[in-house]
From TrEMBL:
<protein>
    <submittedName>
        <fullName>Glycosyltransferase family 2 protein</fullName>
        <ecNumber>2.4.-.-</ecNumber>
    </submittedName>
</protein>
<keyword id="KW-0328">Glycosyltransferase</keyword>
<feature type="domain" description="Glycosyltransferase 2-like">
    <location>
        <begin position="5"/>
        <end position="146"/>
    </location>
</feature>
<dbReference type="InterPro" id="IPR029044">
    <property type="entry name" value="Nucleotide-diphossugar_trans"/>
</dbReference>
<dbReference type="GO" id="GO:0016757">
    <property type="term" value="F:glycosyltransferase activity"/>
</dbReference>
<dbReference type="InterPro" id="IPR011990">
    <property type="entry name" value="TPR-like_helical_dom_sf"/>
</dbReference>
<dbReference type="InterPro" id="IPR001173">
    <property type="entry name" value="Glyco_trans_2-like"/>
</dbReference>
<dbReference type="Pfam" id="PF00535">
    <property type="entry name" value="Glycos_transf_2"/>
</dbReference>
<keyword id="KW-0808">Transferase</keyword>
Length: 355
């Protein structure tokens, strides 16, 4: 059985940190907390859990803080979480089993990261992250903001999931760090361009976001999943600006980087359906239902596009062209995923009255 160090960096997390640590305290073998300047009760709370607590002077560099935490780990493997992450009961069981059975030739273990969950417990969006890494490999974090852990070697894609339970944070923090770096004349990497564009997008600065997403795409030297995500964000920007030609252009541009993803098929379906082109919309929604959901990619997955959403939209498409039997069939498929969805229940009642 391997041993595990949990390494975390925290600041003013009194509302979430106990929930996080309670979910994993019985699995990990040591808890290392690096505090970057808390002024609330965070350190008082973590003292009830942590083996060691360190103070780290904040220098606008998340990677530096995480590397400091990793440097102080002593167990075989290092596991990292943020304060608003938790492990659900089933995932605690999976992690415990993984701890007992992990082949020590494994250098890194990826886990699902569930970013959003609906009221029924269904995962809305998720991605994969390298979460458990062999300490002796001395893997390093890179990037002051939206940092990433660079790993290599023998990587295992596990079915353990970490669930993000979002709480309020300083929404301007990352944006201000990026803009400080720009003022200092720093040359942004492709990754920096992408994540700075994301910050601009989330602050509704759409024209600025478009500029930096395009700069990122022009580098031709980034991660494929980020290119695909940038195409999605650009199509969102142009849709918000009522520029439907450019919206369509960047949806289609995503196909340059990989075979069509269900998310982009649904985008195309929506655009055609919105323009009352039911047959074209039908084609793209039908294609979305036929694709195989990627299980080993680290990029973002919108699970609705791979499950119920295209079937619900196919119900609309088939209803518009008068094929109520197929409309009902696809509505029933959607109902298997979301049995209490009001639109699905409305469709069921309406179509049964016709059939």
């Amino acid at each position: 059985m391997i041993t595990i160090s949990l390494c975390m960096i925290v600041k003013n997390e009194e509302n979430t940190i106990a929930r996080c640590l309670d979910s994993v305290k019985d699995i990990v073998d040591e808890i290392i907390i690096v505090d970057t300047g808390s002024t609330d009760k965070t350190k008082e709370i973590v003292s009830q859990y942590a083996n060691r607590i360190f103070d780290f002077q904040w220098i606008d560099d998340f990677a530096a803080a995480r590397n400091f935490a990793f440097k102080n780990a002593k167990m075989d493997y290092i596991f990292w979480l943020d304060a608003d992450d938790i492990l659900m009961k089933d995932d605690c069981k999976k992690l415990s089993k993984l701890k007992e059975t992990l082949d020590t030739t494994i250098d890194s273990v990826t886990m699902h990261y569930n970013l959003n969950i609906d009221e029924n417990g269904n995962v809305i969006t998720s991605l994969r992250r390298n979460r458990l890494v062999k300490r002796e490999n001395n893997f390093q974090w890179y990037g002051p903001v939206h940092e990433y852990l660079e790993v290599w070697g023998n990587i295992l894609n596990s079915e353990v999931a970490v669930t993000h339970c979002s709480m309020h944070h300083d929404s301007d923090r990352n944006l201000l760090i990026y803009e400080k770096r720009i003022k200092q004349g720093e040359q942004f990497s492709p990754r920096d361009l992408f994540y700075y564009a994301n910050e601009l997008f989330e602050h509704d600065r759409l024209e600025d976001a478009i500029k930096y997403y395009k700069q990122f795409l022009a580098t031709d030297n980034g991660w494929i999943e980020d290119y695909i995500s940038a195409c999605g964000r650009l199509s969102d920007c142009y849709s918000a600006l009522d520029d439907y030609e450019n919206e369509l252009y960047f949806i289609l541009k995503s196909f340059k980087y990989d075979s069509p993803r269900a998310e982009f098929c649904c985008r195309l379906g929506y655009r055609f359906l919105h323009n009352n082109h039911s047959y074209q919309a039908l084609f793209w929604y039908k294609l979305a239902t036929e694709l195989e959901k990627p299980s080993d990619k680290l990029g973002m997955i919108n699970h609705s596009c791979w499950t119920w959403l295209p079937h619900l939209q196919l119900c609309v498409c088939y209803s518009q062209i008068g094929n109520h039997a197929l409309a009902y069939e696809h509505n029933e498929i959607a109902r298997k995923y979301l049995p209490d969805h009001p639109s699905i229940l409305h469709n069921k009642q309406y179509l049964e009255s016709i059939l």
